[in-house]
Design a protein that fits this description.
- The complex is a heterodimer of chains A (about 450) and B (about 1100).
- Chain A has about 450 residues and is mainly α.
- Chain A is about 55% helix and about 5% strand.
- The longest helix of chain A has 29 residues.
- Chain B has about 1100 residues and is mainly beta.
- Helix content of chain B is about 10%, strand content about 35%.
- Chain B has 18 helices and 74 strands.
- In chain B, the strands form 19 sheets. A five-stranded mixed beta sheet of chain B has the order 5-4-3-2-36. A five-stranded antiparallel beta sheet of chain B has the order 35-34-38-39-41, with no helix packed on it. In chain B, strands 55, 56, 57, 58 and 59 form a five-stranded antiparallel beta sheet that branches.
- In chain B, a hairpin with an 8-residue loop joins strand 19 and strand 20.
- Chain B is globular.
- About 0% of the residues of chain B have low confidence.
- Classes of the chains: A mainly alpha (about 450), B mainly beta (about 1100).
- Chains A and B meet through helix 2, helix 7, strand 1 and strand 2 of A and helix 7, helix 9 and helix 11 of B.
């Protein structure tokens, strides 16, 4: 009996054991985002699809944090079709930061292909949290998954699934001004129906429709021809200058091509990098860290930036398949030099406007709004891919360089860059004006 | 009779034994311990040299068989890539002596490739030409010519003969192209630059010393490069791996076929006889291999014409197939052709069968030899001496660089790790590519263009190897063909033929006029019991190799054969009669006569009319591509036009012609004048250009003594209740045509067939409908339109609502009750018989379940027994589709992904499991869940459809089946019908059109047959091999070449008879091509 008593007392005591709260840091969130980026590289997602993989997990995390009723306001009613997420069963036993992170991971898992890679990562975190505080962990997780379900249901109405099975891009071989697949893989046009994806903040996908590209003409005096020639001449000039030329360095730094196919006879391989969106997600991280953003501020920054980029891709792709313009490589091979190769590999979609320019434009406006202008930073986002660190005086300086890099890379005409950057910045400013995410 | 139970036991035992009887092996591998052959072509990867630096790092060296010391025993020469060459003297009984050092042939080049034997200086001793790759990756040296000193030693003399090329050579061939009596050389070179963009096909005109092929004329012992003046391409785009010499067109001058890897077309150089060549590939071939590798030539069908097998790299094994880079996209292929000037190329072996009109028909899928994995060398030989050519194919690749997981996943992770290094793919990365070591293939020739895989039964062992160059010879002088197969990094495989005296042979060697002492280019026709065998002596065969300079025939059991005709290179010939078999004849020219080429001057039944009778109709198919919208559709359904109808449209008593237009293209009408036709526009008809016209009929529907026009329209692009899906009905009024109302129906028509089924004095129409736009696999309703005073109503009859995907129909009295009944054929269905009971219809079963991809039906008493049989055009057997009673072709049809749109997945059986024809990328493009289900290609490869689809999807899937793909006829057996397949020649492509007529005025009707179909993805290739034929009766078939027609490379859609001045002509209408008119002479 005595023994049993001791055991009972022990059990009683141990069940009342005090657990430390689970501390989730901004770094935990950064790491989760990084992890997803790595899987995205492995699985190979095109830039527009990648922007979708960034935005929904961030929104899920953000909405959970906004539920606390602090500085941040819910996006429900502010972005298309999103209504207030459900309340937690018991708000007291919940760690909102933890819930946000779990929801982020869970939505990310749904959006990438190689689930096992995220499950492995997630489970190792789960183990840690479970041991730190099982009850809080379980409650937070339960809520996170509930919100994840909720956000998923909303997400699935964005027409993504429907666009998967829509028709492929139809090549018009009789009209040379039309985009056609480019060397070396001659891939199909990517995401010809991306303009049917539901935008989050835009009133319509064509809201920031840029001016049309210069009229197609091979007349030497036409603006189009001159811009084509500019791509060719620039490429030749900087190639002659060699790999150390500033322009080549810039082109390669901003390549952000998720799938560069390399062919050596029958041997093929791919060099894969992050997408333009992922690069700006990386810059967001750098800025958060430099500004010592706390957890909620961090999630806020990611969320706002990824919303802008998501809409930017829709806006850009709307224009791409509207103007459906041929890439410089096709024309240069046909009319100038059949041996010419751009410094960067031409991505598989129409030329106008430049996706990197639009997205960089939009992201730079958002980040400037959050972190301020003349925010200088060292951009080491691309170092894992063998590229150097570049310093930028401001986000705008970075977006301007990202945009012009496409000319150096030989994959865009000037109009697509300049008009694209404007399109992105206009769109970014609209989002800044429209979204009210803080209670100040 | 009462059977003794012992007998029964014995009988059963015999049957069992019979079943288990192991087929005799044909080849026995002789180990190096016996042969003494220890040569190993070991390649060594270094930091600076791997497949990344040199794309043909795994192609292997060369091998040549020939008797270098004239002791009667063929010797073996091996060239090593990085190792020194070796020469083995044949000591008899499969014992060989390594005389390499003494012989002085070990070589000085860094990287040797092909090795070819020939008597260059005409001294009666075989010399050896060894090719080399020089000038990249630090490779030094030059192509070496070892002149035989006659004493088992050689003197390297390439410089003296001006053959010391320092370029990127893979192989060479000896031939006397100018018939001046000495041996010239075709030097096969390959490009090395990285394939990035297609580059225009015109690149081949840009001559490049290192990569361009060369024709080297022997000018008294000095070889002169005459490539440019003789019209040989020499561009930086030619990846020459295959080289075949043969007098393909049998004009006495040797022609050249060059197989090029990657997207450069193969070259088919026709020798013009004046020292020049013209590439006529596009004229004479329908399509070729894409990654062309080795090739070989032999007459496989006993017509005395050389046929050509060229190899590619299509795997049979599902695991390899589905984890390797697949076929080109439909649109990209179009781009490559249209914008870059290339030709149709597909990834699989091609068996190009020579027709006497100079054109080749491609039969590899039908022949059963299309997929032999990464294949290098093909050698034709009658290995079992049954009189049919067999094939040995060597294959394998050390590492599979086209493995999709490697390309997409593995390589990148490695590259990221090694990013600091300049050489991105290092050894470790290479080691992660899957191995491509596989078994070699051996096929037995079965006649009728067919081959049977004997890879397991004909060899005593068949271990996975990486085998490249292969040569053939009678190493033990026992009369049968032995093989020497080189392997990368391993001992060569020496195969001794075990046929021995199980069948008879005849070997021929030549003692020809100097300097061509071995008689290279000599042709031999062996005649026995009405069968021809034809061979031509060229040593360069297979891949980077040369075989023993002799000719070998097998004759089964024949002790003697009727005769042989030898046509010497100088175009004289002699005939030797009553030749005993089982001997080696050494022949020299004797009692020769001038050979007059058997030019076929006989008047042909059909002759193309020069002016086409003024019918300059060109059908232009519109740009719509079904694969863009219905990504998984097995074939296009949008290109079935044009409609053609013949009849008097202007009341002058002469038959005019209506040609339908494709979508957005106007139809055309030609009115018959005195002796020609002139195009005429009836405004009421021409204005309706939106519709796609598929089937049309000219007849007087409203009984006003003036013909009207009814058109079934379709095109499979318009959908739902789109107006253009309504058929067209024009009534003739005065001198114009006026649109007349039809009932409300919107379908893709395939056939309109008029008949007064209710016997009320006006013409009613059966409308067969083909497909539901955007919902392939669904059955559209077909209709019977009842005529009342020229107005049509749909007959209220359920019987036609669910016929199937109808393609053709015919009104014919199949039950001999004096009233015409209706027979309907279509795809994924059996021919259906509808009995006409005085105006009402009941379906009656008249055949077994004959689900096919039926295209056409024609009543015809083919067996001459007085009743009507029915000819049926089907998909044919020259296809990746496979169907049998036991293992039908299956098409899964459902809205698998619940997106409101249906999909189809076509599966074929392999080893009792069903696999989708399409790969993961294609399927996942439509069925998104597969991207998550299979995150590697390896996981997907080898998965049957039942594992790929989830259970709930399998449950809701409707499975459409095809049991039979053969074209054939329904033999009328007292009113029931039994299906009899046509012979092989009629199975080469889909048969789409029949025309019954007494063409030869023998008071008996014959049936002209047309076909072919191109609406398939590059995965399937192009069904272009059927040149047309005339069926006289069940046993008599006349082929295109003897008829004077040529429908190959054309999609025949309609065959019609038109009369001008009471003379009949045949009008042939093609999809997307010019209409043709043939005169019938008799």
């Amino acid at each position: 009996m005595k023994f049993i008593k001791i055991v009972l007392i022990f059990l009683l005591m141990s069940s009342c054991r005090k657990y430390d709260p689970i501390v989730v840091t901004p770094n935990d969130y950064h790491n989760a985002v990084d992890r997803v980026v790595q899987i995205m590289i492995h699985d190979i997602f095109s830039p527009p699809v990648a922007s979708r993989i960034f935005v929904y997990p961030n929104i899920a995390a953000y909405e959970i944090l906004a539920k606390q009723g602090g500085k941040y306001k819910s996006l429900s009613g502010q972005v298309s079709g999103l209504t207030a997420i459900p309340d937690p069963d018991d708000s007291k036993s919940i760690n909102y930061e933890l819930s946000a992170l779990i929801a982020h991971l869970d939505l990310s898992r749904k959006l990438i292909f190689s689930e096992d890679q995220i499950v492995e990562y997630r489970d190792s975190l789960y183990n840690i949290w479970e041991s730190e505080n099982p009850e809080v962990f379980r409650n937070s997780k339960k809520y996170a998954l509930k919100v994840s379900e909720y956000i998923t249901a909303w997400m699935e109405k964005d027409n993504y699934i429907q666009t998967r099975t829509m028709s492929k891009y139809s090549i018009d071989m009789d009209d040379i001004s039309r985009w056609q697949p480019t060397p070396p893989s001659y891939m199909d046009g990517i995401e010809p129906h991306w303009n049917k994806i539901r935008p989050l903040v835009l009133d319509s996908v064509s809201q920031f429709k840029p001016v049309p590209p210069p009229e197609f003409s091979l007349n030497e005096n036409s603006r189009f021809y001159k811009e084509l020639k500019e791509v060719y001449d620039t490429s030749n000039r900087i190639t002659e200058a060699g790999d150390t030329s500033k322009e080549i360095e810039i082109a390669q730094f901003w390549d952000c091509n998720p799938y560069v196919s390399v062919t050596r006879g029958h041997l093929m391989f791919a060099t894969k990098k992050i997408t333009p969106g992922a690069h700006w997600i990386g810059i967001t991280k750098i800025a958060c860290k430099k500004s010592n953003f706390n957890y909620n501020e961090t999630v806020f920054a990611y969320t706002k930036a990824s919303i802008a980029m998501f809409d930017a891709f829709i806006s850009c792709w709307d224009e791409k398949y509207r103007s459906n313009l041929v890439r410089p490589e096709t024309l240069i091979n046909l009319y100038f030099n059949d041996n010419w190769k751009p410094i960067l590999q031409t991505p598989p979609f129409p030329e106008y406007t430049s996706g990197h320019s639009v997205v960089s434009g939009a992201a730079s406006v958002i980040l400037t709004d959050i972190f301020g202008d003349n925010f200088s930073f060292d951009d080491d986002t691309e170092t894992p891919y063998g590229l150097p660190v570049r310093n930028f005086k401001s986000f705008y300086a970075a977006s301007s360089e990202a945009a012009i890099s496409r000319l150096y890379g030989g994959i865009h005409y000037r109009a697509a860059i300049e008009n694209g950057l404007k399109q992105g910045k206009d769109l970014g400013r609209f989002i800044v004006k429209r979204l009210h995410m803080t209670n100040e | 009779m009462k059977l003794n139970s012992n007998y029964i036991i014995i009988a059963v035992a015999l049957v069992l034994l019979g079943c288990n009887r192991k087929e005799d092996i044909v080849f026995k591998e002789i180990p190096d311990t016996e042969t003494g052959i220890t040569f190993v072509n070991q390649i060594t990867e270094t930091d600076d040299l791997s497949i990344l630096d040199y794309l043909y790092f795994y192609n292997g060296g060369g091998v040549a068989i020939g008797d270098i010391n004239n002791d009667g025993l063929p010797d073996i020469f091996f060239s090593g890539n990085q190792v020194k060459n070796k020469l083995y003297l044949n000591k008899g009984n499969f014992k060989f002596e390594d005389i390499s050092d003494k012989a002085g042939i070990r070589g000085n080049s860094t990287w040797n490739t092909g090795a070819i034997m020939g008597d260059v200086n005409g001294d009666g001793f075989l010399d050896i030409y060894v090719c080399a790759v020089v000038g990249i990756n630090g490779f030094g040296g030059y192509n070496e010519l070892y002149i035989n000193n006659g004493d088992e030693t050689f003197t390297e003399s390439a410089t003296k003969y001006a053959l010391d090329y320092a370029s990127f050579s893979s192989s060479a061939a000896f031939l006397d192209y100018d018939l001046d009596g000495d041996l010239d050389i075709y030097l096969l070179n390959h490009a090395v630059h990285t394939q990035e963009s297609f580059g225009h096909a015109n690149l081949r005109y840009r001559r490049n010393y290192q990569t361009g092929d060369k024709l080297l004329r022997n000018d008294n012992g000095i070889f002169t490069d005459v490539s440019e003046q003789s019209g040989i391409f020499g561009g930086p785009n030619g990846y020459g791996l295959g080289l075949a010499i043969s007098d393909f067109n049998q004009d006495g001058y040797p022609d050249i076929y060059v197989g090029n890897d990657f997207h450069e077309d193969d070259y088919y150089y026709i020798n013009n006889g004046d020292g020049t060549f013209t590439d006529k590939l596009k004229m004479h071939f329908g399509h070729t291999t894409r990654f062309s590798m080795g090739n070989d030539v032999a007459d496989i069908n006993h017509d005395g014409l050389p046929d050509l097998l060229t190899l590619d790299m299509h795997a049979e094994d599902e695991k390899v197939l589905k984890s390797s880079e697949g076929d080109e996209d439909y649109q990209i292929q179009k781009l490559r052709l249209k914008q870059y000037g290339y030709y149709y190329q597909f990834v699989r072996n091609m068996m190009q069968v020579n027709q006497s009109n100079g054109n080749f028909k491609e039969t590899a899928l039908l022949s059963g030899i299309a997929s032999t994995d990464w294949s290098w060398s093909a050698l034709f030989g009658d290995f079992n001496q049954d009189g049919e050519q067999d094939i040995y194919i060597s294959n394998g690749i050390l590492k599979r660089p086209n493995d999709l997981d490697y390309i997409n996943y593995v390589s990148n992770e490695q590259i990221v790790k090694k990013i600091e290094k300049t050489s991105l793919v290092d050894k470790q990365a290479l080691s992660m590519m899957p191995s491509g070591k596989v078994n070699n293939y051996i096929f037995e020739g079965k006649g009728n263009l067919l081959f049977e895989n004997k890879s397991t039964s004909w060899l005593n062992k068949n271990v996975p190897t990486v085998s490249n160059a292969t040569a053939m010879g009678d190493l033990d002088n026992d009369g049968d063909l032995d093989l020497v197969v080189t392997n990368l990094n391993e001992l060569p495989t020496i195969l001794q033929n075990q046929t021995n005296n199980k069948a008879t042979y005849l070997k021929l060697k030549f003692n020809y006029d100097k300097p061509n002492t071995f008689g290279v280019g000599t042709k031999v026709y062996a005649y026995n019991k009405g069968t021809i065998q034809f061979k031509e002596l060229y040593t360069c065969r297979g891949f980077q190799a040369s075989s023993e300079p002799m000719i070998h025939f097998g004759f089964k059991n024949a002790k003697t054969i009727d005769s042989i005709k030898i046509v010497w290179p100088n175009y004289t010939y002699q005939i030797e009669k009553n030749i005993a078999t089982n001997q080696t004849l050494v022949l020299k020219p004797k009692n020769t006569k001038i050979f007059v080429n058997h030019t076929d001057n006989t008047k042909k039944l059909f002759q193309k009319v020069d002016n086409n009778l003024g019918i300059n109709f060109h059908h232009e198919e519109d740009n719509y591509t079904d694969f863009i919208r219905q990504k998984l559709i097995p074939y296009q359904v949008s290109n079935k036009g044009p409609a053609v109808a013949v009849g008097d449209l202007n009341n002058d008593g002469k038959a005019d012609i209506f040609f339908g237009g494709s979508k957005f293209k106007s139809s055309k009408i030609y009115l018959q004048q005195d002796s020609t036709y002139i195009a005429h526009k009836f405004f009421g008809i021409v204005k309706d250009s939106i519709k796609e016209d598929i089937s049309a009929v000219i007849s007087d529907f409203n009984n006003d003594k003036k013909n009207d026009l009814f058109i079934g329209t379709g095109g499979a692009d318009f959908y739902n209740k789109a107006k253009p899906l309504q058929d067209s009905y024009y009534i003739q009024q005065d001198s114009t045509f006026v649109n007349h109302k039809l009932p409300d129906y919107y379908e893709n028509a395939s056939v309109v067939r008029p008949y007064d089924f209710d016997d009320d004095g006006d013409l009613d129409i059966f409308i067969g409908n083909y497909t539901v736009t955007n919902d392939f696999g669904k059955t559209p309703p077909s209709f019977l339109l009842v005529n009342t005073d020229g107005n049509f109503e749909i007959k209220d009859s359920k019987v036609f609502e669910n016929i199937g995907m109808v393609t053709d129909a015919v009104w014919d009295d199949f039950d001999n009750d004096g009233i015409k009944d209706l027979i309907v054929v279509g795809e994924w269905m059996s021919p259906k018989f509808y009995k006409n009971n005085n105006g009402s219809f009941t379906e009656v079963v008249k055949t077994d379940n004959l689900n096919g991809l039926w295209q056409a039906i024609q009543p015809f008493d083919i067996d001459g027994d007085g009743d009507t049989d029915y000819l049926l055009g089907n998909w044919g057997l020259n296809t990746k589709f496979k169907a049998s009673e036991k293992f039908p072709l299956q098409m899964y049809y459902a809205d698998f992904d619940d997106n409101g749109k249906t999909e189809t997945i076509v599966c074929v059986e392999k080893n009792k499991e069903y696999y989708p024809l399409l790969g993961l990328n294609e399927l996942a493009n439509q069925l998104l869940f597969l991207k998550k289900k299979y995150t590697t290609y390896k996981a997907f490869a080898g998965q049957p459809i039942t594992a790929i689809l989830e259970n709930n999807m399998l449950e809701k899937a409707k499975i459409l089946k095809v049991y039979n793909l053969s074209s054939g006829y329904l033999r009328n057996d007292n009113g029931d019908f039994k299906f009899i397949p046509f012979e092989t020649e009629l199975q080469l492509a889909p048969i789409t059109s029949f025309l019954k007529f007494d063409f030869n005025k023998d008071n008996k009707e014959e049936v002209l047959v047309g076909g072919n179909y191109f609406g398939v993805a590059p995965f399937h290739g192009r069904f272009d091999a059927f040149s047309g034929a005339l069926i006289k009766d069940a046993n008599t078939l006349l082929l295109a070449a003897e008829l004077g027609i040529d429908f190959s490379k054309k999609e025949v859609k309609n065959l019609n008879i038109i009369y001008i001045k009471n003379k009949p002509y045949v009008l042939v209408t093609m999809n997307n091509d010019d209409a043709e008119v043939y005169k019938i002479s008799n």
